[in-house]
């Protein structure tokens, strides 16, 4: 920066200016970034996900995942893209493959195609399209009773009365641990078939 007399600064110095605190070093892997985000996620989810964090999560492209140990799949049905991507990212760390969509009609098409491979369906009550998550839960528990059905809602704190009895209800804001527990149960426990 020029001084008051207009003399340019001395550039012969061998010291480099310090990098701004908000820049990332070139060797920082996406896994390390993801681990750092996950460490803060539990605290943030209770207050809602700030837009700057949601934007960051949308822009992070995961490194290629290790081969899936199971041919089982988790289906995430959520119309809020940031929430869907967070659920997909969490479930991608399990033994389940992950498929996401934003409406019940797309979910039913995936179920018709993937059917017996789907171990877990995680759906919001409010979805894009004419069907809601409760109608989706009723269809899945009737047509694919071995899939573990988990429904979530930010509008209802209590289990909806018309939710099928074998479906699990988790109110929002859900914790990552709750979703991971349901994924574990989907791969290790047989889903009870309730008539």
TrEMBL record:
InterPro entries in the record: Bact_response_regulator (IPR050595), CheY-like_superfamily (IPR011006), Sig_transdc_resp-reg_receiver (IPR001789)
CDD domains: REC (cd00156)
Keywords, comma-separated and alphabetical: Phosphoprotein
Keyword Phosphoprotein applies: yes
Protein name, per record: CheY-like chemotaxis protein
Residues in Response regulatory domain copies: 73-187
Region of interest called Disordered, as start-end residue ranges on this chain: 1-25
SUPFAM superfamilies linked to this entry: CheY-like (SSF52172)
Domain of life the protein comes from: Bacteria
Modification sites for 4-aspartylphosphate: 124
Species assigned in the record: Methylobacterium goesingense
